[in-house]
Model the fold of this input.
Amino acid sequence: MIFQKVKGIFIDGKKEMCKKNPLTEYLSPNKVYIPLIQRTSILKPEVKVGDCVKIGQLVASIDKPFSVRVHASVSGTVVSIKKVWHGSGKMVDAIEIENDLKNELAETIKEEKNVDKLTREQLIEKMELAGLTGLGGAGFPTHVKYKTKAKIDAVIINAVECEPYLTCDYHFITNYPEKLLKGATYMARAAGAAKAYVVYKINYKEIRESMQPYLKNYPNIEVFPLKNVYPSGWEKYVVEQVTKKTYKNLPAEAGVIVNNAATAIIYADIVEKNIPQIVRPVVVTGEGVKVPHAFVVPIGTKVSELVDICGGYIDGLDPLKYNYIAGGPMTGKAIFIDDLVVSDTLGSVVIKPVIEGLYPECLGCGRCADVCPTYLTPTEIKKAFERKDLKLLSDLNANKCVECGLCSYVCPSHIEITEAVRKGKTFLLKGGK
Amino acid sequence: MARFAGGKAPFLRQTDEKDYGTHVIMKDFIIALLPVILFAWYKNGIQVYMDGNITFLEMLYPLFFIMMGGILSSLMEGIFFFVTDKEHQSFHDISQKLSLSFAAIPGIILALLLPLYTPIWVLIFAAFVATIIGKMIFGGFGHNIFNPALLGYAVVGFTLMGVINNAGGLFNASEVLVDSYAGATPLGVLESSKQISYDLLVKPYGTLYDFFIGTIPGAMGETGALAILFGGLYLVIKKIIKWYTPVVYVGTVFVLSWIIGALSGDSGLWFPTYSILSGGVMFAAVFMATEPVTTPTNVIGKVFFALFLGVFTVLFRFVGNLPEGVGTSLIFMNIFTLPIDKFTAVIRTKRFTKPGGLYFGILTGLLILLTVYTIVKAGNMYTIYLPFLGWVI
Amino acid sequence: MKKYLKNNYAVLTLSLLIVLIFIFGGMFSRYMTNQIDVHAEAEELRVFNESLIALAGMGDEVVVFEVEQLTKEYLLPESKTETYQPELLNAYKILENDEEVVVIYVISTNGKFAGLEVAYAIDIETKTLIDIKVMNSNETPNYYVALDEAFFGQLSNKTFDDAVFTIDAVSGSTYSSKAFETGMKYARELFARDFSFEIPYIVYTINWIERNYDSATFLTKPFIANITYGAENNVLEAYFDNKYNLVEVISGVEPDQTYKDLFKNDFPKTSFIDVKTFITAYDETLRLITIETIAYGGKAVIVEFELNATLDQVVAMSITTTQSYDSDYNEGYSGGAVPSVENAYRDQYLLDGSYLDSISGATITSNAMKRIFTLMDNVLTEWGGN
Done:
């Protein structure tokens, strides 16, 4: 069918503003706030106020629906459990740990000697114990993906990062190219797959160049370039491009598992040093920041500290004329108060001006439908939602929306069409409530 | 800590770029109309003036007339905004609303659809019908069901055609003054004669080349196929319209006319060519069947729309009492834009699964029925069955 | 009031603009509609002028020539006495390189009906009627149909210097023919007035000749003729004797001897009536009428008819003849001796009043007999009413 092929459109990346500045490691903030939430699950704290914690010590966990484990990212004292702004746009409880700057490591953190002898089950168990989640933004627990019963042919490491402004993966990979290849190898083993692909955007030559010296040591890894379009980093697009196969719900149907590049790098440390997932790359960028930077920071670091390192906001910034976006500008959320903490799902903060104007009504040009990567018809979903027509919404597959934001992006009348479709999707998923 | 602005994803918009947005689309429509406007001016004014047949003042009139169309519809909408919105009654507010409503475009198209010599008061009435009744009553730009310009044209065409004819409309200056054609427009000849004959339909106006260039009698903008093609090409290159809408529409008219011509005993290619070059087919294909607000939004819908439009155009041309089937069929098809949008969206989503296939089958069946009916009617095949009727009785 | 204006200035301005467009735009569009007729007229004029140039066969520009009527009466085609005034409708000059080359008079004359409008194009330099063009006509086809190319050919390239300025009428369309001739003459009069042209003045025209059937006088003055003559186109009506001498003027001015000689000379050539046959004697009491005509060899054939009491039928006739039949024709004459031809005609005439066909070898004598009978019949017809 002509309609099945995912396409994309070119969006000006605006990545140069951050790309030129080097990756900054900021590993010991004064305080960290470990959010007690993972995707939609509320975590149960494993420590009490006043407890001393070491780096890598388990602080919170939950078993259902999936096993999720969160670890302390600095050593120090648990000061309190208080509400902080989370990247999802809500205020959530967080464990506040005051850094004692001693950098004491937990006992579990030790060199793994027989890396090559680890079985597939052991590798997956390591993922679970380290609390490895997808660092691309979705935060899905990685071990769940690997516990699939399907036959996996290949693991795809997604280094595309198609959202504009963001350079988080770009910086992380170019700094740790070998770790990426190692992580990819371990992941392929964990999946029982023979091959691993690293996909990247074709205009990021640096990614390929940085990996080039090591590639000969990893014969089962193939580097695969993708077009510079949005949303080329979308899982389905990546899978289609690499395997020429498509799937309905999970990539496993096409015999692949897709993981973010940062996840792979973290996983290399997990396997070799047993360091759980306690750091992640974050990029603070946008026109509202003086010198945009990419960071590697402990989870729970306050974004305001990172902004200060970037030189603060630009002079004379009127906050009400700027968006403080948690996540990328296409899919992120606007945060009202700049009191955000880094969580596993927060890969970026973009501070960019709000452009206001007077816009006419929808003229029915159909561009939203043309660009939709899932071949939905946003205008009709919007109308169906306004009529609360549940059957039509399901006929229109409103639940298939990936919220890539392209429909709003191309809309010449500046209509919040993505938001309308999102509402329709929620309405449908909740069964009309 | 600072309080930042809210908003919903995505925060990046193409409208932030300078040359993007609905106003650019509408501006491109006007740019695409320019060759048509210029040709209308050339044919009705400049050329005749250069031949020394009219005065300078008369030469300016076609341009004046087209501009009046745009100005009048803007004024009408301005008054409408004033009357309906008690809060914003200053010039600044009204002009801002007008710029978001693209008020001038229906008026300009309306003027291009009417013949020169249409009295100004008829134009005022048509502009009133087009903008107020056709557009603002429905809720303004983006909410109108019917193409506003077309609605104005149709209402004036049904009610005031006699007035226009009396004032000398229907013909263009060049035809009246230079060659003094004795008859009506080419389609009028077809309508009255119901005969497919080259000598009758094409000869009096020259050759098909004249039809292509547009030096034949007709409304201001509709005859210049070449100028319209230039405009259409610009729109396609700028990706304002999809190329397949005009192509499917014109193709349908072409093929159906060919079949009808062949059944009537003349299978020459001149008749389908004549069919697409006479009347408003080309103008409608480029500027009205692609008008975003009143036509379907998605690909399948556009193709459907264009296909049916072609069928109905031919149908109304041969069966209806009006010589021009394009306007009537467009208004007729405008009604179905919303359902077509809905069903084709489902078809698009479900990828021709059961319900989609059913709709598709029903609509295609209808299409075939109509085609057959058209052809039968055009060939007067009913007369063959009359003896049987007598036999039965 | 001020407050109202302040609140509503926007809508008032917009409405005012619409009203202005309604008024001035409406005027403009009305003007355009009117211009259609103006241009149509201009186009008509252009076509008309082109047709004039085509008629003249030269020139490149047509200008209207402002001239007045010329008072000049002409005989009505159907009458011998009543006259009428042809009407000059329009006059145009055709210029070639700004030089007048042709003048065109559009003249309305009377044919069977009034209003035969014809354009006469006259070459100014050569003083020639170049051609004519019928612009409008009320003539019914019946009266018009016989006017063929040969007839119209007489009207092209006809020089004005001819003293005898006539055309041959076409039988069946006599009235229409006369209308053209009158127009042509009137055009020459106009041309003479406007371009200092002198009409050759020794000119006369026999308008018509009639036979005098009055029994008291027809022996001495058998013919009545209507003649136009002289530079002033005097119209004369007079009796002529059988030697074609003018014997008595009925109306008009008596011409001088020059004209009388001209008449005498041209009278026998006329085609109006048969002028070679005369009544030479009439005895009222015996109802005897003698008719004489010149036949073969210049010798006379004389027939004496005896009429019945009511003077409407011939009861007997006696023929005096000295004819000799000749074999002029190939076939020759094969009949009896003189006067067998005359007798054959007599017998036939007395039998049923009809004439025999010409007898070959004796055609002239046959024709002479026919002429005599024709005249006799005409006399009977004229008298029949008395």
Q: What stands out?
A: Chain B has a mean pLDDT of 80.
